Amino acid sequence: MYLLDTAACKTIIRANVLEDPLEKAIAVEAREKLKKLAEKRLIAVSFITEAELLFSVLKKIKEAKSEQAIMELFKLKWGVKLFLSGINVLRNTAKDSEHYAAKMAEIWSNNEKIDPCSCFIAVQALTRNAYLVTDNTDEFSKVSGLKTLTLEEFSRITSRS
Description:
Layout: E1 2-4, H1 6-13, H2 21-39, E2 43-46, H3 47-63, H4 67-85, E3 88-90, H5 94-109, H6 116-127, E4 131-133, H7 137-140, E5 147-149, H8 151-155
Parallel strand pairs: 1-2, 1-4, 2-3, 4-5
Helix pairs in contact: 3-4, 5-6
């Protein structure tokens, strides 16, 4: 299973409008890989990623100045919902909460800090033995035992599950 973090999802959703040719090519490849793996139920996001994606759009709607911008953002909101409709959204479990507390304590005891939401996303990947797809490798490297793939690595995987 592959668990996508929020930034990876945003990049895939925005694939068509990215300006950097390399970033765009990676995002398009990742989107195609995601479609194939989603059909096999091998793609998931955390409920935290779901919430962060929706918050990101709603925040932009609140900040929008013109009606046209607001309409475009509502289209984006439905695009996010459509994106999420084909992906398993992982809900919190008691096991996740216990592992989260243990990982946060471990990280803090090493005098390091991690965003609490990032830690929870990492724990959901760990408890399900999933790969976390992220380009935020510095943040997630603080979580011992976590298997990560960059978006570029994810776009190039073969048929492993």
